[in-house]
Amino acid sequence: MHKRWLISLCMIIFLVGCAELTKDLSKVPAFQDEFTREFMASKKEVSEGYYLFESKTVGYTVPFPGDARIDEIHYEKVGNVFESIKFGSESEKHTGESYTVYMMYENPTRPDSLEVQLSSVVNALNYDGDFEEKEYENITHYFARQKYVLSSGDSSVYYFFGVVSSNPTNQYISYRYAVRCPDERTGCNYDLDTIEQAIEKMMTSLKFKEK
């Protein structure tokens, strides 16, 4: 009888523990979504509102916004040399509007030129302007932004985009971060510099794993 009581007590403790774990995860959309949760290396924040994303290529980690979910349909991976993801949320931190991020990781056997690295964002946005270049200890960040008014003229999108390139290896990530402005006629008084700084902080906190 005593043994059965101990087993029952252990089962209750286990079930309560599972319930508490689920309760904790349900507070953060990135952990609430089953597919997104697969990429989260830890439940501990790396900075306010951000958690550590670990690529399935094992090539890099990056701070990931806790309010975002990864779109499983648009996820693509080829061995350990390519990974493409799309993620976003209905409430961007600084604007309250929806945002979407497209991010592509590549690890070519031979170094790609800067033009090739930038090509995915340049071609997707038909961008012919310059990029701001900032060099850090192990990475170089090429960054730009532009506004795109939809054909209807009713709404617009602000794009922040660029490439984070590893200095000691061939690895790089190209990305574009889109923030929606729902009413172009009245305009959206967004603090674009603040949004840009937040994106730059996230992307330059990216860490490539040397191979």
Structural class by sheet pairing and helices = alpha+beta
CATH second-level architecture of the largest domain: 3-Layer(aba) Sandwich
What gyration radius follows from the Cα positions, in whole Å? 20 Å
Unreliable runs, pLDDT <50, ≥5 residues? 6-10, 12-16, 18-23
User: What is the fourth-level CATH superfamily of the largest domain?
Assistant: Mog1/PsbP, alpha/beta/alpha sandwich
Instruction: Specify the overall morphology.
Output: globular
Q: Beta-strand level of the residues, as a percent range?
A: 35-45%
Task: Give the SSE string.
Answer: HHHEEEEEEEHEEEEHE
**Number of helices, where a helix is a run of at least 4 consecutive DSSP H or I residues:** 5
CATH class of the largest domain: Alpha Beta
Let me know the number of strands. Answer: 12
Total individual domains: 2
Helix % is: 25-40%
Q: Mean pLDDT across all residues, rounded?
A: 88
CATH level-3 fold name of the largest domain = Protein Transport Mog1p, Chain A
Terminal Cα span? 57 Å
Taking the sheet with the most strands, its summary is: 8 strands, antiparallel
Topology of helices and strands:
Blueprint: H1 2-25, H2 29-32, H3 34-37, E1 40-47, E2 50-54, E3 60-65, E4 69-70, E5 76-78, E6 82-89, E7 99-106, H4 114-125, E8 132-135, E9 139-149, E10 156-166, E11 172-181, H5 192-204, E12 207-208
Antiparallel strand pairs: 1-2, 2-3, 3-12, 4-6, 5-6, 6-7, 7-11, 8-9, 9-10, 10-11
